[in-house]
TrEMBL record, chain A:
Residues 2-232 form the ABC transporter domain. It holds the Pfam family ABC_tran. This is ABC-type lipoprotein export system, ATPase component. It comes from Paenibacillus typhae. The keyword Cell membrane does not apply.
Automatic annotation (TrEMBL), chain B:
This is ABC-type transport system, involved in lipoprotein release, permease component. Residues 21-306 form the MacB-like periplasmic core domain. The lineage of its organism: Bacteria, Bacillati, Bacillota, Bacilli, Bacillales. It comes from Paenibacillus typhae. Residues 66-79 have a biased composition (Gly residues). GO terms for cellular component: plasma membrane. It is found in: Cell membrane.
Length: 237, 459
């Protein structure tokens, strides 16, 4: 589903090059829910931006659904993101002038989907994230947890191959955090959508199927997928 | 992305960003109003002046005078040699008039000899200065004249007056007294009002007897001659839209050629002092030809010129006016466009500000899959919408300005009426939308190039 190959990323500060990611390799299977764990400055956000096609790596390749996104131009990437990638932001990033339903529908607007289909899908997703009665409200009328639910519904509306969640519980209290993680886990199970959750919280990462740990730009923990581990055990045993 | 969605999003932004919308709309509306008002004033003035020219110079008429290579005295001086057309091929004879009448597209042709100004006296001693014109009275209707009273008559001694000649007839004593008073106190508004009201005072002239009076100014005592009694057989109606005051400025008495010959005999002082009719039989100084359409004027003129005659139309007046007003309209358009260009700077500034404020939103949209073209189209549509709204406001302003101008001109007592031709509204709106779109291009490109990652990054 998602394959990261030999990713290296550097940036220039003055006359010096600083490398923030060193030879990163990992694979996420379809329908998996994995965590990218790391402390501040570990390179996890850079990795997320690279996987989402918002940045180009200095070296390496990133394959999503068989497409190398590193080779794509800006408009092709936009089209690819529209079809294959969903985003959940730490600060929700809803458009304040649009209603909850309109916010959820927005990715479909860029795909020229008809209003009636958009509406139907948006309402169904709001139902799934537990806020069907908030459709006509504006984001400013919602709590942080509710806004994050809207953000989750918006990320799902295009039925993407993979959803990137950047610190999805970073702005929430503990109780709401648990609710949001529970929603994500449930959606992963029911929709079989691949989730990559970037977090610095070990408690969040522990609830995912696998956790990739980054430290100072190095991938220090790359556990095999459950299926791979099983076949490996079978091979040796 | 559907046009409906782009338009709705643009409309949402226009509603939401009231300051930006207000700034842009104000700029565009001023520019649009400037264009509409400038074009309207140009068009109104052109219409007004053209109407005036048409009223004074009939565009479908040709004035024919004697012509040809050999100098001609026309019919004015008489003499056996000049009566022989072989010796004066440019002479305007009765035979040539008949040929002209038979030409294609000619509606009417008749001599209109100007016999100068004379005093007309009524039986009750009222007096007015009238211009005497000798013509074939039977053709008056063919020339488009309408009779208010009476009709065509060619009996000797019968005359036709225009409506203006029936206005302002005052007895000589009162007139002299009023002139003297006005001469002594020229700024007296009461006297001026009295004079104006007397100038438009109508008199019943139909079937009345009048006389013409000629004065010999070459002698010190100013010898006076009176014509025999003439009878008013018809009163002409005024042209549409002419008020009494304007009609009173033009007092004309139309007489038949036979009556003119009789008056020449009765009022001549032996010299042509320009104040007595002088018409020679079978040749004319001036013939007026009415043509069915202005489009055929030139072809008829060419035919007439083949008869060794001079032909002159009034179309050059229209062409001259058209050239002048085209220049005025171009200048007005230029001023309007200049104002719009200035206005567009305000739009560029406001929209660029707006783009900067919305960078984060643009970034989110790009992350959600909006491409550069979609972002650009959203901003250009928004700019076009601002242009349209500004244009509509500009149309409203134009009507208010034109209303104000009409009130201003109305109070000055001028008959000039400003109006907004319907064709100027789409022109104004098109310029407004175009300004909006052109001004929105830079902000739209700038917005579409926003780096999504930089835009959504939080410090």
């Amino acid at each position: 589903m998602l394959r990261v190959e030999n990713i290296k990323h550097s940036f220039k500060t003055g006359n010096e090059w600083t490398t923030v990611l060193h030879d990163i390799n990992f694979t996420v299977n379809k329908g998996e829910m994995v965590a990218l764990l790391g402390s501040s400055g570990s390179g996890k956000s850079t990795m997320l931006n690279l996987m989402a096609g918002l940045m180009k790596p200095t070296e390496g390749h990133i394959y999503i659904a068989g497409h190398d996104i590193v080779q794509m131009g800006e408009n092709k990437l936009a089209e690819f993101r529209r079809k294959h990638i969903g985003f959940i932001f730490q600060a929700y990033e809803l458009i304040t002038s649009l209603t909850v339903r309109e916010n959820v529908e927005l990715p479909l607007v860029f795909q020229s989907v008809s209003p009636s289909v958009r509406k139907q899908k948006a309402l169904a997703l709001l139902e799934q994230v537990g806020i069907p009665d908030k459709a006509d409200l504006f984001p400013s009328q919602l709590s942080g947890g509710q806004q994050q639910r809207v953000s989750i519904a918006r990320s799902l509306i295009t039925e993407p191959s993979v959803i990137f969640a950047d610190e999805p519980t970073g702005n929430l209290d503990t109780r709401t955090e648990e609710e949001i993680i529970a929603i994500l886990l449930k959606l992963n199970q029911t929709l079989k959508t691949t989730f990559i959750v970037v977090t610095h919280e070990l408690e969040v990462a522990e609830q995912m199927q696998r956790t990739f740990s980054l430290r100072d730009g190095y991938l220090i923990n790359n556990p095999p997928a459950a299926a791979d581990a099983k076949s490996a055990e079978g091979g040796t045993g | 992305m559907k046009i409906r969605d782009i338009s709705r999003m643009a409309w949402d932004q226009v509603k939401r960003r009231k300051v930006v919308t207000g700034l842009c709309m104000t700029g565009i509306s001023i520019g649009c109003a400037a264009i509409i008002v400038a074009l309207s004033i140009g068009q109104s003035a052109q219409t007004y002046v053209t109407d005036e020219v048409n009223r004074n110079f009939k565009m479908d008429e040709i004035t024919v005078t004697p012509g040809g290579g050999i100098p001609s005295q026309g019919g004015g001086s008489g003499g056996a040699a000049q009566n022989n057309e072989n010796l004066d091929p440019g002479k305007l004879t009765a035979q040539k008039l008949e040929i002209i009448k038979s030409l294609n597209h000619v509606v009417a042709a008749a001599p209109f000899e100007d016999a100068g100004y004379m005093q007309m006296l009524t039986v009750d001693n009222k007096i007015a200065d009238v211009q005497v014109k000798a013509t074939d009275l039977r053709t008056l209707k063919e020339f488009g004249f309408k009779f208010k009273q009476g009709g065509v008559t060619d009996l000797p001694g019968m005359v036709v007056l225009n409506y203006g000649a029936t206005l302002g007839l005052i007895d000589n004593e009162t007139r002299q007294k009023l002139y003297e008073q006005m001469g002594a106190d020229p700024f007296n508004s009461d006297l001026m009002n009295q004079y104006n009201s007397l100038s438009v005072l109508p008199s019943e002239m139909y079937r009345q007897q009048v006389q013409l009076q000629a004065t010999d100014y070459s002698t010190a005592e100013g010898k006076v001659k009176l014509s025999s009694a003439l009878q008013v057989g018809g009163i002409l109606a005024t042209a549409e839209g002419t008020d009494d005051l304007r009609a009173s400025y033009e007092k004309i008495m139309y007489v038949s050629l036979e009556t003119a010959a009789m008056l020449t005999e009765q009022l001549s002082f032996g010299i042509n002092n320009g104040m007595s009719p002088n018409v020679e039989e079978n040749s004319y100084k001036t013939v007026t030809v009415k043509v069915d359409s202005t489009d055929n004027i030139k072809s008829v003129e060419a035919m007439i010129q083949k008869l060794n005659l001079n032909a002159m139309d009034n179309l050059y007046q229209q062409e001259m006016l058209k050239e002048q007003f085209d220049m005025i309209k171009m200048a007005a358009l230029g001023i309007g466009v200049f104002i719009l260009v200035i206005a567009s700077i305000s739009i560029i500034v406001a929209m660029t500000m707006s783009t900067h404020q919305r960078r984060r939103q643009i970034g989110i949209m790009k992350v959600l899959g909006a491409n550069m073209g979609q972002i650009r189209n959203m901003f250009i549509t928004e700019a076009a919408l601002l242009g349209l709204l500004g244009g509509l406001l500009g149309v409203l302003f134009s009507y208010l300005i034109i209303m104000g101008l009409n009130k201003l001109v109305g109070t000055a007592g001028d008959s000039l009426n400003f109006f907004i031709p319907l064709t100027t509204i789409p022109v104004g709106l098109a310029f407004a939308i175009m300004t909006g779109v052109l001004s929105g291009i830079y902000p739209a490109i700038s917005a579409s190039r926003t780096d999504a990652l930089t835009a959504i990054k939080r410090d």
